[in-house]
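S.,

Sequence below, as promised.
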Amino acid sequence: MKASLNPQNIKYFCILRLIGVNYMSFDVISLGELLVEFVRKERDVMHTVPGEYIGPFPSGAPAITIDTCARLGLRTGFIGVVGDDDFGQMLLERFRGDGVDISRIRIDKDSITGMAFVAYRSDGSRRFVFNLKYSASAKLSPEDVDLEYIARAKLLHISGSTLYISSSTKNACKKAVTLAKASGTIVSLDPNIRLELASIDEIKEMLHPILINTDILLIGEDELISITGITNINEAAYRALDLGPKLIVVKRGRRGSIALTSNGIIIEARAFPVGEVDPTGAGDVFNAAFIYGYLNGWNLEKILIFANAAAAIKVGRRGPMEGPKSYEEVASLILEKNIHF
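The prediction came back faster than expected:
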């Protein structure tokens, strides 16, 4: 039976965690869309014309983050829904093989697993076509989220894209965040803006109740500008702090990353140059590597270096979930570049 949201149950699970009762605990859990991705073989060939795709690749923003966390060595779990089909089986097998707990992934026999089709332009921009609103992922509901599972985690990661799929997924995320805050679990958020799923005004409205309860905001540079309306990145980051988060991390692609704390400390780290193969998923891999360093108590400069290196490995590989296979692989890249770490 799932624990209900009431003060007695919240107190009970908080006490369990404080006294270290021997039950399976997690470093990180997430929830949201599980999908497979098909990518145009050639650049500048949009979805409007016939052409070749490669795939399917396991994907989904929160799924990429949680799988990478597992590969880096964190204890992870996921809450989601897949269809009773080959694509759903692929995702479950990938998670199982990488060590992600799948006990809270539900198989819906009346739905198909989510799919995304991606086309790249020569300038690096992307065009997506999703079926998410009509997929199993859209059936994730608040009933799938329970206090007992959330309270077992040190950190809950939310991908904004999950909010935009359906009212049911939005409410599931809101419930997860409410339970996390009540049980002392850290909350990280990547807004992951997808205008294919919702307008920017709708996105801002949906993000607001999550942002005010967010501890760590992991956000792309363009997304930060869209949310705040401010083009100067440092000013925009300060403005984002007013929305609720205690720590802002800005992902800038080829220009590296910036972290800004609530007490005004700004840390920057350069990107790792890499030949681009497939940038999709790099931001989600960055999230995972940042979470890894944060939970291990590293200083912000070290965390940013590590996260930038992990994202660079992903950019050099085909497939959104095909980032670093281990902590050692990321550390080796950093050492190869003669960077103090």
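Residues 97 and 199 are 37 Å apart (CA to CA).

Coffee later?
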